[in-house]
Write a structure and sequence with these properties.
This protein is an alpha+beta fold. It has 2 domains: about 200 residues, H-NOX domain (Alpha-Beta Complex); about 100 residues, Homeodomain-like (Arc Repressor Mutant, subunit A), CATH 1.10.10. It has 16 helices and 6 strands. A 4-stranded antiparallel β-sheet has the order 3-4-6-5, with helices on one face. A hairpin with a 4-residue loop joins strand 3 and strand 4. Helix 10 crosses helix 13 and helix 11 crosses helix 12. The chain is globular and about 60 Å long. The N terminus is likely disordered.
């Protein structure tokens, strides 16, 4: 799997950080300073930001609240399964806790995790290993504590609080605020260990999850794979996707995108061909994915949707959608809701 640093993330997840900052009296302007994130995009389910933008928001939070002990850990406890959309639903619909944890690792870039998670499953221990090495040094401890706290929350929520965390291990020395972490997480971390890890009882590995649905798991796995592909920003194809999902919008031309990427139209076309893609193909993928989400989850009128997707009129959008899925937008919406 590609590095998580090459993936875009929904900007709405950033609202979790902004809400926590607000509880400590920090305004939204301070949180968004130099991030390039527009306030109006914070409630747009389809707006995406880069990891660099998200990381700057983390830095702003740390700078604004240096006096708050265990701030990273407290932040992690604000995230829950529903925060993460499709990724969270896929975990919740898994058959067992083991499968949910495996699925979490498989589609990890769809979460907010900066650490690398891997499944720990041997004769002695069961849980997650957490590796913060990819994170810049000045953010490493903060985000390690945030990601492990989020992991604790997710594991408890998945099983409806029916499990206990056996151990929370950190490889570094105990910070001054270790007692606050223990109070927040309900478990005293073990420091100066050989690893960073969340350890569970082995008996919990095969615990059946209460919302298991085999058909839904297959559907959500497919959607997670699609999201991974669409959010990946590595290579020129990913750069084009980022521009289309950003300020240019889906009505942008190849010339518009090429200018934004500081290359000629011909160079952009050639680089896309080298990745077995075309500009039109990238635009079509983005339009199809967004159209399906809007039809499934909103009551947006088709003329408004056509405009949102960059079409000149509703008829053009309807013809394109029928070509993609074999049904009109109205038929697709009715079938999905049934």
């Amino acid at each position: 799997m590609s590095s998580a640093a090459t993936f875009l993330h929904p900007v709405v997840i950033s609202q979790v950080m902004i809400n926590l900052a607000a509880r400590y009296g920090v305004d939204i302007e301070t949180c968004l300073l130099a991030t390039g994130i527009d306030k109006k995009d914070l409630h747009d389910a389809d707006a995406l930001i880069t990891r660099q933008q998200e990381m700057r928001l983390v830095e702003n939070l740390m700078l604004a609240l240096p006096h708050v002990p265990a701030l990273g850990f407290e932040l992690g406890l604000q995230y829950n399964v529903s925060t993460f959309g499709i990724w969270g639903f896929a975990l919740r619909s898994s058959r067992t806790l083991r499968e949910a944890m495996q699925r979490a690792v498989r589609y990890l870039p769809l979460s907010t995790a900066y650490c690398r998670f891997s499944l720990l499953d041997d004769a002695e221990d069961f849980g997650w290993l957490v590796d913060p090495e990819p994170i810049p040094q000045h953010l490493r401890q903060f985000l390690l504590e945030r990601d492990t706290a989020t992991g604790i929350n997710l594991l408890k929520e998945l099983s409806l609080a029916g499990i206990d965390i056996e151990a929370l291990e950190y490889s570094g020395p105990a910070p001054d605020y270790a007692p606050q972490i223990a109070a927040l997480g309900g478990i005293a971390p073990l420091y100066n260990r050989s690893r960073n890890a969340l350890i569970l009882r082995r008996a919990d590995a095969e615990r059946r999850l209460p919302m298991y649905d085999a058909n839904l798991v297959r559907l959500l796995d497919e959607q997670c794979r699609s999201q991974l592909k669409l959010r990946q920003t590595s290579g020129v194809t990913g750069q084009v996707r980022a521009q289309l999902l950003g300020s240019l919008g889906l009505a942008a031309s190849l010339e518009d995108v090429a200018h934004q990427l500081a290359m000629s139209d011909r160079s952009l076309r050639r680089k896309l061909e080298e990745q077995n893609m075309t500009f039109r193909g990238v635009v079509e993928e983005e339009r199809k994915m967004l159209a399906e989400r809007l039809l499934q989850s909103t009551n947006m009128k088709l003329d408004e949707m056509a405009l949102q997707l960059g079409y000149a009129d509703t008829a053009s959008f309807t013809r394109a959608f029928r070509r993609w899925v074999g049904h009109s937008p109205g038929e697709y919406r009715s079938q999905h809701r049934q």
